C-alpha cells in the first residue's frame, strides 16, 4: 500500500509535466546547487543568506529549501509538503529580496503565524543587517507606521488591506501609515489567494441610526414549529413560511406581511427565520466572550472581525440574547484579491497549491510548481471507508481509534465543525476513549494541544485548525518518546467525512508522515454526511440505499467523490462570479482614489474645480480669506464630499448587486448588466462632486472660512474594520440555482 501511494504521487507529477498542465512548472533550473541558469543576482544572495541561516538560526537550508526560495524570488507559486520547511524557505527568499533593495511583506492567514514567524526568523534578518517587524489587529497607528519602514514585514493579509483602506480616508498626510506594496510572499497561499480572495475587507464608520433590532421578529419566530409553520429545503439551507406560519406571525406582530408597503416587515421576518431555523450555532458561529463570532469554515478557527451582511448578524445576536453590534456605514471596501494584485511582485507557498494552480494562473497570472520532498513519503493513504449511516461510521471509527490507543499510537481526527468535534468526543467517551478537543471554542489552547498530539496513545479531535501552520511532533513536545511512537506506526490521521475540497483533505492527511516519518491516513464517510446530503447526485444516493454490503460501500464512495467534485466546482464558480462583479467597482475605486490622492498631497487642486464652476464665488473667497485659506478650504471640503459621495455610490451598487440576478429571467447576463448599470451610476460622479463642494462653500462665511469648514466637515466619530463574509445561507438567487442544480443532477 505504501508503494502504491508513492507510485501514484510520481505518476501524477509526471502527467502534469508531460501535459503542460497548470502546476507543472519545473523548478530544476532554479536549483542553486545544480545549475547556473539562475539570474546572476539570485545565486550569490541565496548563498550569503543560507550561510547566515546556519550561523544565526543553527538551521542549514536543504537543497529543496534553496530551490523553493529561488522559485519564490522568481515570482512562482510553490507547493512544499508539511514539514519540509516552508517557513525557512520563505525567510530565505524574503531576506534575499530585501538585500537587493525590495520591501518585502510575508503575508500569512492570521496574527499568530505572523508574530511567530517574525520572532523565529528575526536572528537571521538581524545578522544580515535587515530590519523585521510584525503587525496585528492590536497594533497602534504609530507601531504600524514604524513597521512599514522595516525591510521585511510579517502580517496577516487582512491587516495590510485595512491599512490601505484607512489611508484612503485620511484627511492629512500625518494620519497615514503608508504600506508599500512592493514584493509579497503569501504563506498558505491557497487559503489566502483562493478561499478568501473575494471576501471584502470593510472599513465602516459610525452612523446616527441605531442598529437593526430583530428582537420582536426573532421572539415570534422562535415560537413557530417546523413542519407546521415553516419548512426547510432538503439542504437545510433556507426556510420558508407556510400559510399557517405567516398567519401566526401576522397575528403575533400585528402586521400584514404581504400588504403594499410592508416590504421591510416581511424582510425582517425572513431574516429572523433564517437566524433561528438555519444558522447553526457551533457550526456557522459560536458565542464567546458575550459576542457572536463566526467560524471560518476552511480553518475551523474563529474568524476574527468578520460578520454577516443584510441584517443576519443582528438577527443571530437577537436569537442569542446579545446586544446588536453596529454595522455602521461602509466607507470603503477592498477584496483580498484586489489588494494582492496591487503588489509589484507576488509569490506564494503552501502544502496544497498544485490543486488550485489553474485558478492562481487565471486570477493572478501566477505559475505554480512543486518542490519534491527531501525524503520519500512513508505515509500510507488507505482507501476510503464507506457506510450507509453515521452510526455505522462512528462505530467503525471507534474501533479504529481503540486499536491505535491499545498500541500507544497517537491519533488525530479531523472534523468540520465545533458541534461535530464535541459530539464525536462525547461518543468516544461513552466507549471509554478519552480525547482532547481543539476547535474554535478553545483556540487559545491550540499550541499546547498540538504539542502533545503526537504523544503515545494521544487522541486529538480537531476542526481544520490543526491543518495549517503547525507541526505535530512524534513523541510529544520534546519528542522524548519519539521511538515509542515510531514503533507503533507513527501518527494516524482519521477524517470524519470529506471536506468540500480535496485540498482540505490533503491538508489534514499532511499532518501524518512528516519528513519521512511513518504514518497513515484514512477517511470515513457515510451517506448522511452533510457533504453528500447537499451535493451528491440523487441517482447515486438511491443506488447506495438500495444495495448492501460491498456494493453499497462502493456506491457511497462514488457518491462522496462526486459530491466533493460538485462542491469544488460550485466554489470556483462563486469565485469567478464574485470577481467579475468586483471588477467594475475596482476600476471606479482606482479612479476615485487617484483624484483623492492628488487633492490630499496637493498635486491636483480641488480649488481648480471651484474656480471653474463658480469664478465669482472663488474670487470673493480669495479677496476676503486669502488664497492659502481658500485652497485649504476647497481641499478639506472636497475630500469630505468625495468620501460621502463614494459611500453613497457603494450603497447604490450594493442594492443593485442584490437584485441584479433577476436580469437572468430576461435572458440577460447579470454580470454584464451590473457592469453597465454601475457605469451609468458612476457617470457624472465628479460633476456632482464639484457641484457639492461649491454648494458647501457658498453657505460659509468668507470672513471665518476655515472655522466654518471645520464645523461643516462631518467625519465618522469612530471607524472599525471587518471582513464581510458571504451569507452562508445564500441569497434567493443562490437557493434557486441550487434547486435547479439538484434537479439536473437527478
UniProtKB/TrEMBL annotation:
PROSITE patterns: HELICASE_ATP_BIND_1 (PS51192), HELICASE_CTER (PS51194), SECA_MOTOR_DEAD (PS51196). One of its GO terms (cellular component) is plasma membrane. Residues 1-552 form the SecA family profile domain. Residues 67-203 form the Helicase ATP-binding domain. It comes from the Bacteria. Transmembrane segments: none annotated. It catalyses: ATP + H2O + cellular proteinSide 1 = ADP + phosphate + cellular proteinSide 2. It is found in: Cell membrane; Cytoplasm; Membrane. Monomer and homodimer. Part of the essential Sec protein translocation apparatus which comprises SecA, SecYEG and auxiliary proteins SecDF. Other proteins may also be involved. Belongs to the SecA family. This is Protein translocase subunit SecA. It comes from Leucobacter aridicollis.
Amino acid at each position: 500500500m505504501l508503494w502504491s501511494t508513492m507510485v501514484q504521487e510520481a505518476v501524477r507529477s509526471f502527467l502534469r509535466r508531460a501535459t503542460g498542465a497548470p502546476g507543472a512548472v519545473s523548478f530544476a533550473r532554479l536549483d542553486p546547487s545544480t545549475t547556473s541558469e539562475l539570474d546572476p543576482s539570485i545565486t550569490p544572495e541565496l548563498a550569503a543568506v543560507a550561510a547566515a541561516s546556519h550561523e544565526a538560526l543553527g538551521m542549514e537550508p536543504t537543497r529543496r529549501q534553496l530551490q523553493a526560495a529561488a522559485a519564490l524570488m522568481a515570482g512562482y507559486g510553490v507547493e512544499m509538503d508539511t514539514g519540509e520547511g516552508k517557513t525557512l524557505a520563505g525567510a530565505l527568499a524574503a531576506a534575499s529580496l530585501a538585500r537587493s533593495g525590495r520591501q518585502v511583506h510575508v503575508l500569512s492567514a492570521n496574527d499568530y503565524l505572523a508574530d511567530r514567524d517574525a520572532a523565529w526568523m528575526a536572528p537571521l534578518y538581524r545578522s544580515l543587517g535587515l530590519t523585521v517587524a510584525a503587525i496585528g489587529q492590536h497594533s497602534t497607528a504609530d507601531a504600524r507606521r514604524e513597521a512599514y519602514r522595516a525591510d521585511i514585514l510579517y502580517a496577516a493579509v487582512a491587516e495590510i488591506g485595512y491599512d490601505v483602506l484607512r489611508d484612503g480616508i485620511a484627511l492629512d498626510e500625518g494620519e497615514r501609515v503608508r504600506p508599500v506594496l512592493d514584493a509579497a510572499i503569501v504563506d498558505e497561499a491557497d487559503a489566502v489567494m483562493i478561499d478568501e480572495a473575494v471576501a471584502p475587507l470593510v472599513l465602516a464608520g459610525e452612523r446616527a441610526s441605531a442598529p437593526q433590532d430583530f428582537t420582536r421578529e426573532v421572539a415570534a419566530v422562535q415560537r413557530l414549529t417546523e413542519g407546521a409553520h415553516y419548512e426547510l429545503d432538503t439542504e437545510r439551507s433556507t426556510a420558508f413560511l407556510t400559510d399557517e406560519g405567516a398567519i401566526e406571525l401576522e397575528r403575533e406582530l400585528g402586521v400584514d406581511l404581504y400588504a403594499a408597503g410592508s416590504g421591510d416587515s416581511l424582510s425582517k421576518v425572513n431574516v429572523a427565520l433564517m437566524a433561528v431555523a438555519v444558522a447553526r450555532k457551533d457550526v456557522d458561529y459560536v458565542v464567546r466572550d458575550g459576542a457572536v463570532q463566526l467560524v471560518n469554515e476552511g480553518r475551523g478557527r474563529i474568524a476574527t472581525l468578520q460578520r454577516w451582511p443584510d441584517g443576519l448578524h443582528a438577527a443571530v445576536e437577537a436569537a442569542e440574547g446579545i446586544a446588536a453590534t453596529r454595522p455602521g456605514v461602509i466607507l470603503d471596501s477592498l477584496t483580498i484579491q484586489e489588494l494582492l494584485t496591487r503588489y509589484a511582485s507576488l509569490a506564494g507557498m503552501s502544502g496544497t497549491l498544485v490543486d488550485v494552480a489553474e485558478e492562481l494562473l487565471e486570477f493572478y497570472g501566477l505559475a505554480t510548481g512543486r518542490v519534491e520532498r527531501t525524503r520519500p513519503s512513508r505515509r500510507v493513504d488507505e482507501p476510503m471507508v464507506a457506510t450507509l449511516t453515521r452510526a455505522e461510521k462512528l462505530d467503525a471509527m471507534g474501533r479504529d481509534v481503540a486499536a491505535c490507543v491499545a498500541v500507544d499510537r497517537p491519533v488525530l481526527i479531523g472534523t468540520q465543525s465545533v458541534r461535530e468535534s464535541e459530539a464525536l468526543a462525547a461518543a468516544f467517551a461513552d466507549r471509554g476513549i478519552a480525547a482532547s478537543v481543539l476547535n474554535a471554542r478553545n483556540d487559545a489552547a491550540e499550541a499546547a494541544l498540538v504539542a502533545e498530539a503526537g504523544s503515545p496513545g494521544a487522541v486529538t479531535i480537531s476542526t481544520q485548525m490543526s491543518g495549517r501552520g503547525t507541526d505535530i511532533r512524534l513523541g510529544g513536545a520534546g519528542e522524548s518518546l519519539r521511538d515509542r511512537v515510531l514503533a507503533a506506526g507513527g501518527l494516524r490521521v482519521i477524517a470524519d467525512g470529506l471536506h468540500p475540497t480535496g485540498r482540505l483533505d490533503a491538508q489534514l492527511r499532511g499532518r501524518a508522515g512528516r519528513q519521512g516519518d511513518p504514518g497513515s491516513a484514512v477517511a470515513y464517510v457515510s451517506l448522511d454526511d452533510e457533504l453528500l446530503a447537499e451535493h451528491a447526485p440523487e441517482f447515486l444516493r438511491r443506488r447506495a440505499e438500495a444495495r448492501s454490503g460491498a456494493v453499497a460501500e462502493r456506491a457511497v464512495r462514488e457518491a462522496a467523490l462526486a459530491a466533493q467534485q460538485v462542491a469544488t466546482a460550485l466554489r470556483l464558480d462563486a469565485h469567478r462570479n464574485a470577481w467579475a462583479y468586483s471588477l467594475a467597482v475596482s476600476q471606479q475605486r482606482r479612479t476615485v482614489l487617484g483624484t483623492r490622492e492628488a487633492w490630499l498631497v496637493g498635486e491636483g487642486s480641488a480649488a481648480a474645480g471651484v474656480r471653474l464652476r463658480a469664478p465669482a464665488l472663488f474670487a470673493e473667497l480669495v479677496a476676503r480669506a486669502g488664497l492659502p485659506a481658500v485652497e485649504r478650504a476647497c481641499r478639506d471640503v472636497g475630500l469630505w464630499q468625495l468620501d460621502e459621495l463614494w459611500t453613497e455610490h457603494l450603497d447604490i451598487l450594493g442594492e443593485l448587486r442584490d437584485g441584479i440576478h433577476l436580469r437572468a429571467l430576461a435572458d440577460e447576463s447579470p454580470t454584464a448588466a451590473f457592469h453597465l448599470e454601475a457605469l451609468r451610476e458612476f457617470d457624472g460622479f465628479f460633476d456632482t462632486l464639484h457641484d457639492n463642494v461649491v454648494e458647501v462653500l457658498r453657505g460659509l462665511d468668507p470672513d471665518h472660512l476655515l472655522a466654518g469648514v471645520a464645523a461643516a466637515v462631518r467625519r465618522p466619530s469612530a471607524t472599525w474594520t471587518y471582513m464581510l463574509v458571504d451569507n452562508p445561507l445564500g441569497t434567493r438567487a443562490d437557493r434557486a440555482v441550487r434547486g435547479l442544480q439538484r434537479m439536473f443532477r437527478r
